[in-house]
Amino acid sequence: MKKKGALLTIFFTITTLLIGCEPLLVLDPKGPQAETQAKDIMISILIMSFIVITVFAMLSFMVIKYRASKQSSDYEPPHIEGSIRVEAICIGIPVLIVTFLSILSVQSNYKVEATPEKYKDKEPLVIYAATSNWKWHFSYPEENIETVNYLYIPVGRPLEFKLYSYGPITSFWIPQLGGQKYAMADMVNTLHLATDVSGEYMGRNASFSGKGFAENTFNVTAMTQDKFEDWIDDVKNTAEPLTEEKFNELLKPAIVGQSTFTGTHLDFLPPPEGHHGSNKLEHANKDTHSDTVTSDDKH
To answer: What's the pLDDT at 126?
Structure first.
């Protein structure tokens, strides 16, 4: 009786906790790239659920059918040869599942690594997303503005993010718009995203990068193209210009709030080129790490 009561308590506790959980952001897509990935996740979950249910059903059948029973002392179990049919099923079905998931993954990978098909005829908005301990710098070269720790994007237009880092390797991730991709110091990675729905989204660094990792987040606001252009005009009329001195100050390890500037750091500190961009970041990295040198490093 006590065991039954304990099991019921555990069951209701877990149920209550699950009811209070918010829906998984990756399963609440707001763009074509995220929709592709959410569909793949659901297909994988369904396949794995089918496998788990089948295995447990077979296990239950075997345990019941072939459970221990009283036999005479001279009982000899029958000699059973291997079954080609059973072996074919046990090997063939996993091979088919892996093949199917492999084909699905490759097809989806090509989709998410390119401009969404529905936006092929539109000019992408290029945004340089650079990270430093522990903040995000978003440069809009066409609009000649830059933001820190927040991102404004238009709805119904492809987005092309150029990712790189002024510190450790980080990972750029907006769960409701698409998958994550690494930002590194010596190269630029390109991430294609888009959104179909206006709203507020959460973005973050998905790769652990030190004590400020938990605060290495940014807010994303998706709006119509007209409102996006109004925001650009407002920034140009009200924001202060970004100077090299101010940018070098921002590169120092710290947790800061949101800020907006006219101009971008691309004018005086261009992003790395391909796999050979470390020289472009050399003096920035020196400034970034100068305050974190330990006594052992000095010796």
So the answer is: 96
Please give the helix or strand (H or E) that residue 12 lies within, else none: helix 2-20
Nearest 10 degrees: Cα torsion 127, 130, 135, 138: -20
Alpha-carbon distance of 71 to 142, in angstroms, equals: 84
Question: 10 Å Cβ neighbour count for 184?
Answer: 18
Collapsing DSSP to helix, strand or coil, 15 comes out as helix
Element (H, E) at 221: strand 217-223
Which CATH number is 122-292 given?
Answer: 2.60.40.420
Contact 37, 104 (CB under 8 A): no
Domain ranges of the chain: 28-54+88-113, 122-292
Other Cβ atoms within 10 Å of 280 Cβ, number: 16
- pLDDT on residue 22: 53
Q: What whole-number distance in Å separates Cα of residue 252 and Cα of residue 246?
A: 10
| pTM > 0.90 | no
